[in-house]
Amino acid sequence: MNSPLLPDRHPQGDFFVCDIFDAAPKADIGSMEHPIFSLSTKPDKRMRRYEHRGLTIEIKPSSDGLATVHDRDILIFCISHLIRALNEGREVNQTVRFQASELLKATNRMTTGRGYELLKAAMERLAGTRISTNITTGGQEIFETFGLIEKARIVRETREGRMQEVEIKLSDWVFNAIRAQEVLTISRDYFRLRRPLERRLYELARKHCGAQREWVVSLDLLQKKCGSGSTSFEFKRLIGNIIDEDIRYSHIPDYSIRFSADERQIVFANRGTSPVPLQDVFDGHLDPDIYEEARAAAPGWDVRYLEMEWRRWCGSEEIEPKNPGRHFVKFCQSWHERRGRP
After folding, report:
1. CB-based burial, 266-297: b 16+ in 10 Å, e otherwise
2. Tens digits of per-residue pLDDT, 169-223?
3. 34 and 80 both lie in a single domain
4. Range of 252's domain?
5. Number of H helices, E strands in the chain
6. Which of 38, 44, 181, 189 is deepest in the core (most CB within 10 A)?
């Protein structure tokens, strides 16, 4: 049997410095911790209510059904780019405009006609799903009803009917979380997880285990946090299947998943690869001869200045390149292509 992960549809080698990939994936903490999104792969039209430690969330579907865990990719893409803009000192607003193909590639989706159809359906579910909650974001306790996105607009389509430019207005709730930087960096392999439940388990591990050695949670509470509508017996079976595959393939990013000895609890253990904040600047070593390649990649630019920008960017985006020299040269090339000669 092959790896349970989806194939990497748009491989970029050891680094991600193209415009599409250079924002580290980030998700808002509120919906990582609480079961906002449906785990179903079919239209889910159940109204759901979640209560935990004084928090109440009601999630109401539209005629298209609830927004799903896979629909969340759109929010992750938007959040990632707005956080990057904030890290670079740029002003941001609730409306994000982008090329549809960029989102499909960055989230490991198909770029076929079917991929664009699925993207359009996802935007409709995100706009149609209504949430009533008293979750606090950005230091404000908000009790109101809102959509995960306020609206989505296809700005331009090709003659074949495929969308090109898309414009999305995020909800106040999501935008408050972005401005307060209430987000966490997630693994790019998150987008290669096939099952919605696997993605949900990773989100919970990233939020609750983080950089700690392990996080232990009861099966009952885990089911509640996942938002699963299965019976307890079925939920345990589904978790057991994922654990069996993780034992064989270690496919869940950053964290292993195992039953406790009595099988009443789940143990998430840190593999030592979870994204953790670096210092303000990346301090990886560069070989002296790499600067000549950098000068050729960005003619006219002061490579020491570009090095400073590269190190600061890697730090702010929590990127630790496997091959710093190649990564730096590619950064210089991208810099020159965007800005030309100084």
Report:
1. bbbbbeeebbeebeebbebebeeebbebbbeb
2. 999 889 988 888 788 889 889 999 999 999 999 999 999 998 888 999 999 999 9
3. yes
4. 209-270
5. 11, 14
6. 38
